[in-house]
Amino acid sequence: MASIVYAMLMSLDGYIAGPQQEFGLPIPEAELHRHFNQLMRRTSVALYGRRMYEVMRYWDSPEREQDSGEVEMDFAHAWRETPKVVFSTTLREVGPNARLVNSGGIEVVRSLKADGDGEIGVAGPTLAAELARSGLIDEYRLYLHPIVLGGGKPYFQQGLSLRLKPLGRESLPQGVTLLRYAPAG
């Protein structure tokens, strides 16, 4: 059985994007980027909602490789090699190595979890909240960046109530602290 992990970089005040939905967080430098490259390599399947998938499609662009350093190119290759499932009712197609799901998302994720192994990565708070409400997320990884955005898109969706138990913490480059939690009981 696979483990479902929701992991995102966020501000100290809990936001993954700023007030105008701009990224707002410092871009990971090489050493921190390598950590995320390894995380992507460990991901057996990546789950995305439409908005997060559209942001990540940046890594599919051939122009991206021309403007990238070695660490970013390594991430781009890992991202492209990772199978993706995109949940959207508005998209009509997705890129290479991706599958589009227009309905029955919870059932699809249950099946991926039951039939898979390794880590299934979830990106985006809306999809993560839906999976959390269905009891499908096994671990939350909060990458706290030492910055305050003052508002924006939160890591945890408003109205989502969870009891969590700590699994550990780790200090990473750029002052980022990784906090790991699992659902309690």
Automatic annotation (TrEMBL):
One of its GO terms (molecular function) is 5-amino-6-(5-phosphoribosylamino)uracil reductase activity. Residues 3-177 form the Bacterial bifunctional deaminase-reductase C-terminal domain. It holds the Pfam family RibD_C. InterPro entries: DHFR-like_dom_sf, RibDG_C, Riboflavin_Biosynth_HTPR. GO terms for biological process: riboflavin biosynthetic process. It comes from the Bacteria. This is Dihydrofolate reductase. It comes from Labrys okinawensis.
